[in-house]
Amino acid sequence: MAAAQGSSVVPSSAKVDFLKLQNGSDIRGVAVGGVEGEPVNLTEPVTEAIASAFAAWLLNKKKADGWRLTLGITTAGHDVLQFGLASTPAMFNSTLTEDEINHCPVDGAIMITASHLPYNRNGLKFFTSAGGLNKADIKDILERASRIYEDSSHGSTQELEQASKGEVSNVDYMSIYASDLVKAVRKSAGNKEKPLEGLHIVVDAGNGAGGFFVDKVLKPLGAITTGSQFLEPDGMFPNHIPNPEDKTAMKAITQAVADNKADLGIIFDTDVDRSAAVDSSGRELNRNRLIALMSAIVLEEHPGTTIVTDSVTSDGLTTFIENKLGGKHHRFKRGYKNVIDEAIRLNTIGEESHLAMETSGHGALKENHWLDDGAYLMVKLLNKLAAARILNPNVGSKVLTDLVEGLEEASVTVEIRLKIDQNHADLKGGSFRDYGEAVLKHLENAISKDEYLCKAPKNYEGVRVSGYGGWFLLRLSLHDPVLPLNIEAPSKDDAIKLGLAVLTAVSEFPALDITALNKFLQQ
Questions:
Q1: Could you report the per-residue pLDDT of 61-112, keeping only the tens digit for each?
Q2: Which residue intervals define the domain Alpha-D-phosphohexomutase alpha/beta/alpha in the entry (predicted)?
């Protein structure tokens, strides 16, 4: 797909602040009207300007003699491959696939998705063979797009309109991508044609793009897939939000496993860059458990390697990785791109890392070009199952559950969002980010005087503190005027003690809405 097929850049006199469309390393905006207070800002002209800007940006990154059939905008003179319905990981993979017949590898790829956001939202993700673009790249592209859009408003694109246009070709890339996943599972089982034969595996695609996994991956491997649900794409998400962190979504796949007496359940987010699983007993394998499971698999293959995670992973996960598995846990910042980039950085300075994973379900492996691919994560689980079934054909998902045996889990796990009122006089005209940093600094000072609490000796984001058998982390959101507070503790009483320590410190900041924290403490 490089980009959605479009005509020329449509002239428009409307003023658009392109930089407001940036969402970290992605672009997000409102594409459909009808929601009060959310005007459409991701229009066709705006999207076409962004696609043209990406083509121009890509030309700067590539040598002229290396330009193959690639994506971009056809009015810029470049050819486009339309992949149709696709997953985000597949789009990146198309920059690596060697397939001359289908014009791959491409030089760049654009994925049109807003993941599990509401129906009126849409967005764009960009890839080259080096991976997903970073924040600076997105800013560069949006600045270029703004200039292109302005030129189109003043008729300056007439010459571009008259230029020879590139061609659009349709390619069934998802079949190519899925066949590689099938080959990986077969290889792990000694090239057996149907290594999952007899296993009952149900998939919940949440009406996103993950339905292909049933017909193109599991069935060719011999799995029984009856009971799989919500495989047809529907951006209204009529059944549940396709999000492996969402309780309703996890309840849906857990129920499907129970109703169908399945051996394993698999759930994907909308664009399949995240995933989770459920074993035959109904035990959820997501968040810390999924990281523990993937760590166990990776550390069998690469003993002693470093596992990089985001900042909200548990103390129990650290103990599990380091004491039971013999690996090293490097807890970094929130944001899947931050986690992946940190793992790459560690490798460049001589510290071996083969897995970077976020509690949200984003997981990337060195062996898979550091691509956060939910389907590939599930293939790693299937590889383990397939290999075990060579020795014992009756083995089910217990082989996976056994791998996380010994993971200590808190009885109470909660995230509370403390919002900053940007219009409050206490900000004194400053930014919400400066205000949030002041809150964190004050909390850090207060904690240092409490004999029952201990600040984490190594921490890269916010203030992380251990005490009362648990821990808490207060940090500043990556994009929003919010301070998320994560608390994990062995009991509700212990969680309340940790929450009170935070409340005592942050109560001195009137622009901080502590309603949600008070509600938790009063329950």
A1: 765 433 445 333 445 566 789 999 999 999 999 999 999 999 999 999 999 9
A2: 71-147, 177-282, 287-387
For domain 175-403, give the fold.
Alpha-D-Glucose-1,6-Bisphosphate; Chain A, domain 3 (3.40.120)
pLDDT in tens, 193-211: 999 999 999 999 999 999 9
Q: For tokens 């658009």, what's the residue?
A: 16
Three-class SS state of 352: coil
CB 432 within 8 A of CB 422: yes
How many CB atoms sit inside 10 A of residue 393's CB? 10
- CA–CA gap between residue 23 and residue 136 (Å, rounded): 11
pTM for the full model?
Answer: 0.89
Residue 22, phi then psi, degrees to nearest 5? -75, 135
- Cβ neighbours of 305 (radius 10 Å): 24
Residue range 259-268, pLDDT digits in tens = 999 999 999 9
DSSP string computed for 107-157: S-EEEE--TTS-TTEEEEEEEETTEE--HHHHHHHHHHHHHHHHHHHTTTT
Q: Which residues contact 26 (CB under 8 A, 6 or more apart)?
A: 123, 124, 125, 138
- Is residue 153 packed enough to be buried (19+ CB in 10 Å), middle (13-18) or exposed (0-12)? middle
Q: How do residues 153-205 score in pLDDT, each as one tens digit? A: 655 544 444 444 678 889 999 999 999 999 999 999 999 999 999 999 999 99
Largest CA distance in the chain: 74
pLDDT at 192: 95
For residue 243, which phi and psi values (nearest 5 degrees)?
Answer: -150, 115
**pLDDT tens per residue, range 352-373:** 999 999 999 999 999 999 999 9
C-alpha 377/C-alpha 393 separation (Å) is: 23
Q: What are the domain boundaries of the chain?
A: 18-152+163-171, 175-403, 412-522
Torsion of CA 211, 213, 215, 219, to 10 degrees: -140
What's the DSSP call for residue 410?
Answer: -
The CATH topology of domain 412-522 is: TATA-Binding Protein (3.30.310)
468 in Cβ contact with 494 (< 8 Å):
yes
Query: Is residue 167 classed as helix, strand or coil in its secondary structure?
Result: coil
Based on its alpha-carbon atoms, the radius of gyration of the chain, rounded to whole angstroms, reads: 24
Residue 488, both tokens:
């994990």
pLDDT at 165: 67
